[in-house]
Amino acid sequence: MPSVETEIAELEELLRQADLKPNPTFFQTYLDDRMVLMVDGDICSHSPKAYIVDKHQPLKAQRFDRVEITDLKILDQGDTAIVTGFGNYEGPDVSFSLNFMRIWVKKAEGWKIVAGSMTHLDEARVVPSSSRITAEITIH
What we know:
The protein is an alpha+beta fold. Helix content is 23%, strand content 41%. Helix 2 runs antiparallel to helix 3 (48-55).
């Protein structure tokens, strides 16, 4: 049986590919119906899952030539995994960086993202990977 870290790392890679392609089916499958999402400090008041699935429809999705995830950390909490990292997104019409956190919970139907946050970083706040300070928090 694969470890939680291995399972979540594989799902995170599928998520990266779903952002790149785009693939709404991934988000339909792995986002919890009642997920909570915070973007740039604001809690999304509409259904985050419906919004994200809609934004990844092939004719609506933002096109990316590159989606790079760095400093990915996975904290195993049994049936819960906390993921943090930095993302760099580049496409013909857009380029941005963000930091993110996702909380995955293993449910009867498999792993689901139940909560997440992302903060867009302006160029002044983007720090090279080797200079970042990271911390691990253990929840008891």
